[in-house]
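Order emerges. One example.
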Amino acid sequence: MDRLKAFEVFASVVARGSFVRAAEALDTSPANVTRYINELEAHLGTRLLNRSSRKLSLTESGEILHERCRLILEEVAEAESQTSASTTRPRGRLRINVPVSFGILHLAPLWPKFMEKYPEVELDVVLADRVVDLVEEGFDLGIRISRGGSTSYSARKLATSRNIVCASPGYLLQRPPPKHPSDLAQHACLGYTYAQTADEWHFVDTAGNKHSVKVRYAMHTNNGDTARAAAIMGGGVIWQPTFLIGEDLRQKRLIELLPGYRMADIEVLAVYPSRRHLSAKVRLMVDFLAQSFAGETAPWDR
């Protein structure tokens, strides 16, 4: 049995939830997929998948193996891509999707450095805060701001940013600062349209206890800079990442609230459809961005 191939088949079945769809993705027959899974289970002496007429589910052993398979396949693909990239000269168009605020503040200054280093690569940078389908819309690479990582694509973490609840000094002259997350229900809040938590804000205190509050929005916006500007002018309370409001906090244009409570950090990720056959220009850009943000503390939190 080709063990690496069996791992690949197993991972594909889990990812697609179907022997038939896995066979289509791997350009083989469902019978071959079934054979690989049966041989893998026989080799390991344990059942990996619970099969029913409608769906598949992982057994406990299957969950353990799936995580290990994912790591092994990523490491193999990484080694293949590095070997291929080392012998390929980067050239041609590189289409990148990036979030608006992060793209303007932290990525725009980096593009000229990359272009100078790799003059045969033509950058096509598209700014949008909505989550796009990289494959469907023809992007080679995307930058994502995420709390939970990427489940749809391969990803490499570039940096971390803290989320801070804050308001302007002028706003805080009109209303007393909240002392507990529940106090936020009495405040005017400014919401970000694409926030995963909608109108419920979640916190963890220094003892590890979780707190959540349903807030009242005075305004929604699909752009963080708009929420930031409204907050600076006294429009209400916001939570935003430090990559956007770090300088405002340092200059006291915004004041941090609820310092004893913390929101979950977010990650800045470089995401791409697959590690397999990753082009030299994509790999070089991901490495370039990772080096640009390298360090124990991100630039905006230093």
Q: What stands out?
A: The chain has ten helices and 15 strands.
